[in-house]
Amino acid sequence: MVTGRGNGAARMVTIGVLALQGAVREHERMLDGLGVATRRVRVPSQLDGLDGLVLPGGESTAIARLARPSGLLTAIRDRIDAGFPVFGTCAGLILLADDVADPGGLVGLPTIGGLDVTVRRNAYGAQLASGEADVELSAGALVAAHDVGVALPRYEDRNGSVHPVGRDDRAVDEPSTMRGVFIRAPRIERVGAGVQVLGTREYEPVAIRSGAVFACTFHPEIVPDPALHALWLGGV
């Protein structure tokens, strides 16, 4: 069970999952496996009482259209500005980006913003070009995952020996890899000065953070490795 770390006594963490469209159930299953309560969010009032929010992958244009009548995306941005933790994956990253190089159907629709990055939608090609690739994670992701008590990735050292990663293991000083699923994925073309790169694919940034806001270009919710979710939860 993951518990909140601030405000005194330990309490069960409750994470919202934006449930207008996209990979909602997959994120719920991942969070449930980490001992986290979830709540589906479709209107601004459902943000009340949450400790953080996941913006799942899907169709960024469809999500923006569905959110417009209630003002939900503006409400999320207001909370981000106040320090609210948010984790956006794939389409969620596009909605969080301050600059979208090819907005397409997003023109005239609300987005969230708050991440000083430039992204390009569907940069890896159409659905047929989608696939899996290794994502190299920074050591910080592994330490934070260990801190919230989840199963960690295993680390293969330079000699080919494989062992679990833990706080007292020398491997926390080295990067490790997780499998990333890239489905019509965006590409991060520019990273602002205040944005930290957490993971790379062939030297390109694919997982980033800025304060309590995390985002990635791929779908970490459909692989068994919980490292990115755990890293984000470590700051909730």
Short structural summary:
Helices cover 21% and strands 30% of the residues.
Multimerization state? single chain
Query: What would you say the CATH architecture is?
Result: 3-Layer(aba) Sandwich
Low-confidence spans: 5-9, 142-158, 162-173
By CATH, the superfamily comes out as Class I glutamine amidotransferase (GATase) domain
Distance between the termini: 13 Å
Summarize the helix and strand pattern as letters.
EHEEHHEHEEEHEEEEEEEH
CATH class type? Alpha Beta
What is the name of the CATH topology?
A: Rossmann fold
Biggest β-sheet: strands ordered side by side in the sheet: 2-1-3-4-14-13-12-7-10
Overall pLDDT metric: 82
Envelope shape: globular
- In total, the number of domains comes to 1
Strand content: 25-35%
Give an account of the 3D structure:
With 236 residues, the chain is of the alpha/beta class. The chain has one domain (14-233): Class I glutamine amidotransferase (GATase) domain (Rossmann fold), CATH 3.40.50. The protein has 6 helices and 14 strands. It has helices at residues 24-33, 60-67, 72-81, 91-96, 139-147, 227-233; strands at 14-18, 37-41, 52-55, 86-89, 97-100, 115-120, 131-137, 154-156, 162-164, 176-182, 187-191, 196-201, 204-210, 213-216. The strands form 3 sheets. A 9-stranded mixed sheet has the order 2-1-3-4-14-13-12-7-10. The protein has a 3-stranded mixed sheet with strand order 5-6-11. Helix 5 (139-147) packs across helix 6. The chain is globular. Mean pLDDT is 82; it is low at 5-9, 142-158 and 162-173.
